[in-house]
Backbone:
């Protein structure tokens, strides 16, 4: 669970739209068959994304969606999900059924969905099994200019213009499936990782989100509020 900090000072009494955000994880048929059927499917689609799902999400006016997890986020390596689909490295989805994930739905496909539906992107970064360099390069890939190394790679993969990321989650459920961390340790991990998450889009500033607590764990929240602020 993550919490988006919202400044309500200028809009007191108004419910923040982000509260009605949605969550997409590689769990069951949530992504494959649910959102993604691929460009060869007989099911009506737009670039592999189901048309009926796009229309349904438009109808309920989703403001923001979080991907790729959930627990899946902390074993997801984004470079496996870019480039020609036939060359993408598959992975075993160890959290959800030990099924093979072919990584055909990756960063470009997620932002295509964002653009089709008109919502903002909330990306969950891999802290549990990933590295600082990995998530730093992912942020650059998504939001950096075409002149940067990762921006140039994005352009070679068909999208010269940078995307906008509203929120970037520094890990997911870091107390459990995201690394079984103690709050004191995660607070330092958060401080370290977020230091290298650079803002490439001053016109679209990216919020950095820490992993929230679970089951009313007030101690986790108190430690993070005291120690994780940078």
Residues:
């Amino acid at each position: 669970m993550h919490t988006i900090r919202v400044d309500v000072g200028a809009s007191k009494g108004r419910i923040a739209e982000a509260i009605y955000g949605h969550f997409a994880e590689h769990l069951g048929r949530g992504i494959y068959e649910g959102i993604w059927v691929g460009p060869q499917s007989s099911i009506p689609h737009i670039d592999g994304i189901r048309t009926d799902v796009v229309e349904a999400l438009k109808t309920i006016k989703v403001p923001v969606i979080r991907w790729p997890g959930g627990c899946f986020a902390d074993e997801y390596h984004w470079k496996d999900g870019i480039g020609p689909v036939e060359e993408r490295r598959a992975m075993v989805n160890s959290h959800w059924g030990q099924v093979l994930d072919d990584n055909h739905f990756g960063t470009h496909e997620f932002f295509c969905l964002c653009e089709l539906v008109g919502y903002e992107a909330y990306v969950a970064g891999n802290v549990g099994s990933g590295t600082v360099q990995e998530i730093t390069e992912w942020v650059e890939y998504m939001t950096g200019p075409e002149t940067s190394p990762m921006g140039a790679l994005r352009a070679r993969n068909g999208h010269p213009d940078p995307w906008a990321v509203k929120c970037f989650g520094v890990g997911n459920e870091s107390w459990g499936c995201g690394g079984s961390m103690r709050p004191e340790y995660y607070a330092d991990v958060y401080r370290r990782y977020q230091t290298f998450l650079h803002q490439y889009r001053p016109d679209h500033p990216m919020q950095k989100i820490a992993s929230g607590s679970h089951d009313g764990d007030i101690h986790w929240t108190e430690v993070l509020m005291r120690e994780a602020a940078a």
In short: Residues 3 and 9 are 18 Å apart (CA to CA). Helices lie at 51-60, 107-117, 132-143, 149-156, 183-195, 218-227. The longest helix spans residues 183-195. Residues 1-6 have pLDDT under 50 and may be disordered.
